[in-house]
Design goal:
Order of helices and strands: HHHEEHHHHHHHHEHHHHEHEEHHH
Structural class: alpha+beta
Radius of gyration: 22 Å
Number of strands: 6
Strand content: 5-15%
CATH architecture of the largest domain: Orthogonal Bundle
Shape: globular
Strand order of the largest sheet: 4-3-5-6
Number of helices: 19
CATH class of the largest domain: Mainly Alpha
Number of domains: 2
CATH superfamily of the largest domain: 2-methylcitrate dehydratase PrpD
Oligomer: single chain
Distance between the termini: 47 Å
Largest sheet: 4 strands, mixed
């Protein structure tokens, strides 16, 4: 029974079971996700979330990152998860689409679990004054639940199951209660029912995934029951002799260097490398040809214009690559209204063509190959192939690069000094008896409760 094995794992996993490299990567993932929350909180249009919460919840028990207002843990989790999804800057896991709910592996694309797992862990951990070790362990649990069970039927239940698992773990539920919590969460989660990146619902739904998971754990703790997870013998093969997962999924996650769809990253890497190596500027370029795996062609589905929505730009390879060549970077600055409104970016994007290349498909998803060919007006041709985009397990962000990302995302909300304090607190989290030494730095008022030595 998958559900029973899952509940046993959630209940029994302890911090002492985690190898050092898993703890380290969990801290990096935590810092990365806090960065994405700050990025969302820093946008004026997300003020509506804080305004709404302030009208219905005046319980100042938990931190809404990047904002002055605090809230009860349900709505703090909601806000932080929603903020994390505002920009397409989340962690990811390309292998998460390989289904364990089917006898045959089925590729389902990327999934970004930390955007809901981390806000849930922070909110529950802060409310119940839990230790840093407990919170880190719950984050590992949440990622494992999300990625091990995610397959064809991926929204829901994987997201709601993972947040319920995090909340249930931190609240100390027993195996039966954990089983009911995940069942309730999976049943109650609405998932995504439409496609529309210009809608606020694109990020609001992730707030509800976090909130629903916590509510499900609370209901299960009071004796409410829910449907069981699927029966499947495949999942049981992922346990080792100690009853733990054979592999911790946090070790397979990537951290994004660019706030854009992951499929665009290899091409961005290639263009930035050629620009630096050859000293290219936009006026030099006659044509840029990009060859992608066929499953990635959705990022080349349309040409954009000066009035395009920022989310459409983040999912568009023409726009992102044009920015890379013109600006020499692809950061949050490239997705502001002002930058999108510059006609020169869109004019240059017309020099870019994107072609599907079936010869690359054989390497996917173990690799995510892309070939970029830049032809210049003086007759030169430069080619760059990227198999592993920056940020993945084979080509990870360094700690310094991760810090640069964090500083970029948090600069609208907090000072550089406080950003460095947060970085230090994250990497010392397993030494902390509770979260006050971390969350005290994360509101926009900068209330400081504990020094980080």
């Amino acid at each position: 029974m998958v559900g029973q094995e899952l509940a046993k794992y959630i209940s029994e996993l302890s911090y002492e079971d985690l190898p050092d490299e898993v703890v380290y990567q969990s801290k990096r993932l935590l810092l990365d996700t806090i960065a994405t929350i700050f990025a969302g909180a820093g946008e004026d249009f997300t003020q509506s979330i804080s305004t709404f919460i302030s009208k219905i919840d005046n319980n100042p028990e938990c931190t809404i990152i990047g904002r002055e207002h605090k809230a009860g843990f349900l709505w703090a989790a909601f806000a932080n998860a929603a903020f994390s999804q505002v920009h397409d800057f989340n962690d990811g896991h390309r292998g998460s689409g390989i289904s364990l709910l089917s006898a045959s592996p089925i590729w389902g694309g990327c999934y970004h679990a930390a955007r809901i797992v981390v806000p849930t862990a922070l909110a529950v951990g802060e409310k119940y004054a839990l230790s840093g070790k407990e919170v880190l362990t719950a984050i590992v649990v949440g990622l494992d639940v999300a990625y091990k069970i995610r397959g064809v039927k991926h929204r829901p239940p994987a997201e709601a199951y993972s947040t319920a698992a995090v909340a249930a773990k931190l609240m100390g539920l027993n195996e039966t209660e954990i089983l009911n919590a995940t069942g309730i969460a999976g049943y109650m989660s609405s998932g995504k029912v439409g496609k529309g990146p210009s809608y606020s619902s694109d990020y609001l739904v992730h707030g509800y995934f976090a909130k629903t998971g916590i509510e499900a754990a609370m209901l299960a703790a009071e004796g409410c029951t829910g449907p069981l997870l699927y029966d499947d013998s495949v999942l049981s093969t992922r346990f080792n002799e100690k009853g733990l997962w054979k592999e911790f999924e946090v070790m397979k996650t990537y951290l994004k260097p660019y706030p854009a769809c992951r499929v665009t990253h290899g091409a961005i890497d290639a263009v930035l490398a050629l620009k630096k190596e050859k000293g290219l500027v936009a006026s030099d370029v006659e044509e840029i040809e990009i060859r992608l795996v066929t499953q990635g062609m959705y990022v080349a589905s349309e040409r954009l214009n000066t009035s395009s929505y920022y989310k459409n730009c983040q999912y568009n390879i023409y726009y992102s690559v044009a920015c890379a060549l013109i600006d020499g970077e692809v950061s949050l600055k490239q997705f502001t209204k002002e930058r999108i409104a510059d006609p020169r970016v869109h004019e240059f994007s017309r020099t870019i063509k994107v072609l599907p290349d079936e010869s690359l498909d054989v390497y996917y998803p173990d690799k995510s190959p892309v070939v970029v060919i830049i032809r210049t007006k003086d007759g030169n041709t430069y080619t760059q192939r990227v198999d592993y985009a920056k940020g993945g397990t084979q080509n990870p962000l360094t700690d310094d690069e991760l810090l640069e990302k964090f500083m970029q995302c948090s600069e609208k909300s907090i000072s550089e000094e406080r950003a460095l304090y947060i970085r230090d607190a994250v990497f010392k989290l397993d030494e902390m008896p509770d979260l006050t030494g971390l969350v005290g730095y994360m509101s926009s008022t900068g209330e400081k409760r504990d020094e980080v030595e």
